Amino acid sequence: MRVDFSQQQGGRQTLNPQLAQQIRILGLSAQELEQEVHQWLENNVMLEPEGVEHDDEASDAETQAEDAQDEITLDSNWDDSYAPMAGCAGGEDAEVPIAAPEVSDPVARLARELPMECRSPRALAAAFAVLEALDERGWLEEDLHDIACRTGFPTGELVSALALIQKLAPAGFGARDLAECFALQLRAMTPSDAVRDALAIVGAGLERLAGREIGIVQRELRLDDAAFAAALALLRRLDPHPGRASAEGAAVYPDVVVAQLDGRWTVTLSEFATPRLRVNPHYLRALEASAAPAPAMKQQLYEARWFLRGLAQRADTLLKVTHAIFRRQYAFLAGGEEALAPMTLREIAGEVGVHESTVSRVTCGKYVVTPRGIFELKHFFGAGFGVGCAVSNTAARALVRRFVAGEDPRAPLDDAAIATRLAERGIRVARRTVAKYREALGIPPARLRAASQSLAISA
Q1: What whole-number distance in Å separates Cα of residue 357 and Cα of residue 349?
Q2: In sequence order, what are the residues at sequence separation of 6 or more whose Cβ sits closer than 8 angstroms to the Cβ of residue 66?
Q3: In sequence order, what DSSP letters do the residues of 54-86 get, joined into one string?
């Protein structure tokens, strides 16, 4: 589905209600889709689960595709059969019946909101370039200058894109380091003395709180014990990983399954991604036989068909995008995360024939079952490390994990040593980048790993 935006004065993008609904359905996770289907069945009598038996069963022309792994075709002959919805030529006013459910995943939510907030396709593409570079914590992993060199967008456009992401996302999301993450969260709070003092502590350097300078910081800021304690208590309540908060403890409903069948790898949609619905044939025939069908029933039929079309479009796009991902990441199935190659939204969008924003929607919050575990589809995207390097930053993080797991416990590898080992594999990254990878993996620095080992020996 290639999204075509109509333009109003001022260049702002608008979507007709039908297309807006299809775009929203495309972005729903499997769990959200299940809830959406339940709401539709409760509110639209023209829809029913497939398999319900009637005394005079109708043909299957209105049903969704029988086999999700096959390409889904869409029947568009009905477009002007009934009263069009708002936004169609000559139509009566009507609204999409179900409002979008609240989305807790910041990336998934941004993927849906950015197309409505960006003032031009170019601004949208720049925003997705920044969004793609965020790591699991919700932090910006690359310097904006490096993203500019890699994508061709001017740094100024990327700065504006980052500012928009930080505005739309939960406070702290899109930060470039811990200090900015905390500062964004504090500035989003109601002003108070504790917030002001906490911001001053952040500005003085959070790393000083971990050493022996905590008393020096208090004296420099001229805070009494009560004010300093209140500010520290506020800092402890902040979330250092705003990109992770919504995912923890959530049930995973896989959308896609990648498995080996008769010696060949296959990609199929799970039952969660393919709800079996159809137009109620009994009501359909009654409506068609009526000399003066009720306008409300005609509208419900029209909306039901649009919903079925949105489901079919979601299944078709999800299947095509997953196929394209694993054609490029085939080595992952044999070699695991360390074999992941660099891959961008733009590359997959070009292969499938859709917009980058469509690929982002269909990969955020969608999970694939593989022989190596369950992964979010966006996990397989990652930038490379320069021309000629066939390793993604996701693979680099996996290598960091392996290096630490195999290190000598009595002489742990510091970040510089890990960077040297990565360079030996053609992956040239700065020591601070290694530190970001290590923190994202939950691995303490070398000095703490060494101290832990010493305590274990003493015990």
Answers
A1: 9
A2: none
A3: -TT---STTSPPS-TTSPPP---TTTTTSPPPT
Residue ranges of E strands in 354-447: 367-370, 373-376
Return the number of other C-beta atoms located less than 10 Å from residue 43's C-beta.
Answer: 12
Residue position matching structure tokens 């002003």: 191
In the block, which residue shows the tokens 């209105």? 62
Quick one: tokens of 188?
């989003």
Residues 6+ apart with CB under 8 A from 65: 72, 73, 274, 312, 315
| Mean per-residue pLDDT pooled into runs of 10, the chain (459 residues) | 38 58 84 86 88 56 40 28 28 32 61 79 85 83 86 90 91 89 92 92 79 79 88 85 58 78 83 83 86 86 91 92 92 83 89 90 87 85 62 79 85 88 82 84 77 48
**What 3-state class would DSSP assign to 157?**
helix
Could you tell me which of 315, 243, 219 has the C-alpha nearest to residue 26? 315
Q: What is the pLDDT of residue 396?
A: 81
In this structure, how many other beta carbons lie within 10 angstroms of the beta carbon of residue 19?
18
| E strand or H helix that includes residue 278 | strand 277-279
Task: Dump the DSSP string for 84-146.
Answer: PPTTSTTPPP---SSPPPP---HHHHHHHHHHHH-SSHHHHHHHHHHHHHB-TTS-B-S-HHH
Give the position of tokens 């790393």.
207
- 331 and 339 Cβ atoms separated by less than 8 Å: yes
Give the Cα separation of 29 and 317 in Å (integer). Answer: 14
Q: Under a CB-based contact definition with an 8 Å cutoff, are residues 46 and 301 in contact?
A: yes
Residue showing tokens 């693979």: 395
Assign residue 222 a region: left if phi > 0, alpha if psi is -120 to 50, beta otherwise? left
Nearest to 3 by CA among 17, 20, 12: 20
Query: Do residues 369 and 256 lie in contact, with contact meaning Cβ atoms separated by under 8 Å?
Result: yes
